[in-house]
Every structure is written in C-alpha cells, then in structure tokens.
Design goal:
Number of helices: 8
Shape: elongated
Low-confidence stretches: none
Radius of gyration: 28 Å
Strand order of the largest sheet: 5-7-6-12-8
Distance between the termini: 14 Å
Structural class: alpha+beta
Helix content: 25-40%
Amino acid sequence: MIWPAYPAYRESEVAWLDEIPSTWASGPLRRWIKSIDSGTSVNAADTPAREHETGVLKTSCVYTGTFDITENKTVVADDLDRVSCPVLEDALIVSRMNTPGLVGAAGYVEQGRKDIYLPDRLWQVLFAGVSSKWMHYWSKTQNYRDQIKSVAAGTSSSMQNISQLEYGSITVTVPPVSEQQTILNFLDRETAKIDALIEKQEQLIATLREDRAVTITQAVTKGLDPSCKLVKSTTGWIDSIPIHWEETKLKWNVSAVTSGSRGWAQHYSDDGDYFIRIGNLTRDSIGFDDSSVQRVTVPLHAEGSRTMTREGDLLFSITAYLGSVAVVDEHHVGAYVSQHVALARLTGSSLDPKYVGYAMLSEVGQRQLKEQAYGGTKVQLSLDDIRSIALLLPPKEEQASIVSFLDSRCAHIDALIAKSTAMIGVLGEYRSALITNAVTGRIDVREAV
C-alpha cells in the first residue's frame, strides 16, 4: 500500500535526513533521556530464575530486537545482596557492550519484574517527552544502526561498546506526544500482520523439512514399493527391512576412513584449493554450503594430501553439528578436509555413495551419528564410530532408483523452501521499510489508524 506524505515539511538539521514533518522535532537523543542505569556483574547459574527467585538478565535478552525477560540466569545465594537495577515497566533495555552487529540492540519492556535485574553490560533507559516504545521502533531503523556503528569503540574487533555520552549524541526525530501513540498503534497493527505472514512461511518451511526427512527415511528403510514384504532387522537400529535387502556396516565397504590434519591455518590463502570445514556440510541435504569458502595452498608432499577429495567420497562432521553429511560431487573434487571432518572412501560396487548419504540423513542414520557420540561437554565422533555405522543394502539397481527418486523429490521440496525463504526476506524488508518511513515522517499514517 502507498501511504501519503505529511502536508508540510521543514529542514531536519539531521545529516542523514533531509526533511521532517513541520511539527516534528529533531536533535540529540540526550534531549529526551530521563535516566540511564546499568546493573552489576554477579555470579549466576545458567538456568532461568523461577517465580520468586532472583535473576539477572543475559545480554541475549535483546538479540531478537524485542525484549525477552526469560533470557535470564538465577543469581547464586552469595551474590543476592549485590544485584542492582531491577527491570522496570516502560523502559528500553539497551546492550551497551557486544559484538559489532549487536552492540546497541534494544528491547521495550512491556511489563517489569522486580526480582529480575540488569547486568553491567545492559542499560535501562527511561525517557521524557517521547515514548520508550517509540524509541524501540526507532532502534530498528538502519539510521540508528549506522549511528551506533559510528560511535561504537573497542580494542577488539569482536567486542565493542558505547558510552552514555556517545549514546546521547545520536540524533533522532520525534513527533508531538499526541501523535506518537497514533503512529505506534499503526506500527503495532501493521507489523503484527507482517509477523503473522512471516510465521506462516516459517511454519510451511518446517512442514516441508519434516516432509523431506520422512520421505528420505521411508525410501532408504522401506524402499519405493509399499507392497514389499518386510522381515525383522538384526541391527538394533530399525525394526524391519525389505525381505530382499541385506544389512551391512560402513567398515566393510570402505577402503579408508580418515580426517584432516591439524595446522591447516598456516596454509590459508586467498587462492588455492577448497578447504572443506564443518560449516560447508549441510544438515538437511547431501550437498555443500558454499556460501563461505576457505582456500588453502598446500606445500608439495604435505601430510594432509591424503585427504584430497575424490568424487563419491562421504564426508561427516565429527566434532560439531553431528549429523551433517555430504557426498563429494564433481564440483568438489580435489578439495581438502579439516580435522573436524571425517572422509570415508567407498570400495567395490555394492554401495552407491549418494544412497549412503541419503541413508545418513534418514532418522536411522541421524540417530546413529548422534547417539554414538562421546566426550561430555564436547560431543564428538571417533573414526571407529564412523566405520561402525550400520547400513541397509538394497540391490544396486534399487539404490539407483531410490537416489533418482530422492534427488527429484528433495529438489522439489528445496525449491518450495527457497520460495518461502525469499518471501520471508521480502516481508522482513517491507517491515523494516515501513517502520523507518513511519518513525522518520516520510509517510503520514495518522488517518490509517
């Protein structure tokens, strides 16, 4: 929908905005700040505070752009007398110290809670002459992010902070008090509509992913013929299998199972060969995620050359994101793998690599990869765990039929997921543009309410 402009504008005196409605004010944020308070760093258990328990907020309470009071930790008994700054209703919580992308993140407090306190890395800001909720919407604009970026400082590129002086110097545009609530009502209504549409697309994506997982599991455990007779399995990982299928283990069908060497960082380069890391293995397909590619220039006769990939190699994540697998295609031949990725090379002709890859994405394959992990807080798989993976073995021709069916079905589902993902992006962009235009006065929404 096209919203009208205001009937009259004037120069804004703000570098990033040419004009504002003639009745609006503009200036440094400090003009409207009533108070800024922060809490205290205290020791806390990594579990949320229950009712009547004392908690301290995590900085993640504003990561989503809204305030989530459940993102808190229970304060230990010895530090109960050190907490300060309880969460107040109608305040704006601001992350004063964080990564470059999250410093300045803010959330509006609809309802306070006196037994939940702020840590020292969060501010609680109260305003006079402007609604805290207005400032929350304004903090979602690119204008706000750009100004935060310009004033944030820090000795580390991974952690930055903003001072109260710099925060107060940020310039904002503010309508008359009588007009603020009207615009807020409009934004609440319209963003709720957009959020509902986004949620529907997210639900559709979840349904499609579930459908893909069920389809893969059915195909690699029962085959494509629903009338096929089933017999009891002896693996312990599945109840029954088609009568003409066999049961095997990966170790009986591989010539090698290995992982990358340590110290590959010294070979990093802008050019060179593809270096496959855990992030390049997806968790819901047997393909690769090439959105972030690291390359290496490997010295002649380097020990790691044994892990140079060949077409049909199976790759497994073994230290994180367990269950991520990939099958090396023609586009990823000649790459190297990191120490966190296992490479299994099939031998003989009894197994189709893509069939094995799909089998690993099935419910049975995922359960094996995750339940065999060890290591306490750092869950990982050993190479012997990879070798011991149980597999169902249909005739080779049937494996090819299953792979062809799943390639087609998964491609169709992936196309639908991509379409919904693109729609979420469009809706998100529209939401951001609507908020920006409303809180900077580029559109007049008073009549819309």
